[in-house]
Each structure stands twice: as structure tokens, then as C-alpha cells.
Predict the 3D structure of the following.
Amino acid sequence: MKAGLQSWIMASFDAFGDFFFWTWKIGPSQAGRVEAPLWSYKLGLDNGWIPRNPRDSVGKCAAVGVSAPFEGSFEPFRTGAVPSPTIPAEYSAQYPWPPISITSAEVPIPLLPTFTNTAAAITLPVPTYTSAPASATADLDGWFNDNDSTGGIVTVAGCQYPDAYTASFATVPTAACTGA
């Protein structure tokens, strides 16, 4: 797995040229583990899936058969133009949503856990700046779009959920849960 991660990371480094984005270090959660290990550059260095020298990635794309950079143009919807195209009917027929089954799922699709968007939205605290007057951030509340009032995602009360870190149910559900 580490070799696969390192291959993907080196291809990303090579594809981006002189740029890559990573968070230097993700600290452990209250549970004592790094919950997002692939975001932690330091953890990747320490565990061998990020190369010590990013320059070692030069030529990785060519080594996997990608020899020319993309020189075309993107369709307008791929760069944010509206409206986006519709999904072709043949694709929707081949890949229905919701899916009919999921490989390796412990339970049939109708028994998978559901969530609801009734939680309070989590907002970031407003930053404070030592060299700026308090009035510089007085009108900010940590929420970018005041018209966005959709709630946050939360579990449905009374439903069983798999362990968040192993994705395994303690007790496999036998009926769909509606929270009733």
C-alpha cells in the first residue's frame, strides 16, 4: 500500500511541476490517533509514503506512460460555467443512483445508515489580528454565505451506525432505520 501511495504522490509532484499542496503536520485527535493521515506530510515522510526529496518525482509521469502535458482546453462546465451538462441516460442506466449494491458492504443498500442535515452548521471562529483594530473583523461571523441555511450532517437518532474508523457494524442491521 505504501508503494502505491508513494507512486501516486510522486506522480502528483511530477504532474504539478514546481508545486504541491500538503498540510505539514496533522496532530492526533482526542482519541490519540491521526484521523487524516494522508493529509499529513510529516507522517508520510516518517512512514515512507512521501519521498524525502520531491525532486525524485521528476519523470514519474513519463515512467507510467504519460509523456505529454495537457495542452487542450477544458469544456466550460469544467471551469465553473453554468449550466453543467446533464448526465447521459446510458451512463445513468449503467451506474444508477443510489447504487443497487456496493462491493464489500456488510449490508444491502436499503439497510445502510442514513444521515440527516438537521445539525447546527459548524463555523470557523473569526480571526483576530494583533496589528489591526477590532473593527476590521467586527462585521464577520465565520460564515461566508448568510443565505446558506442548510443544516449540518448528523446521525439519525435511534439508528445503528458502524464504527467510524473500521466501518464495521457491532450488530448488523436487519431492517432499514428511519429513526422512529
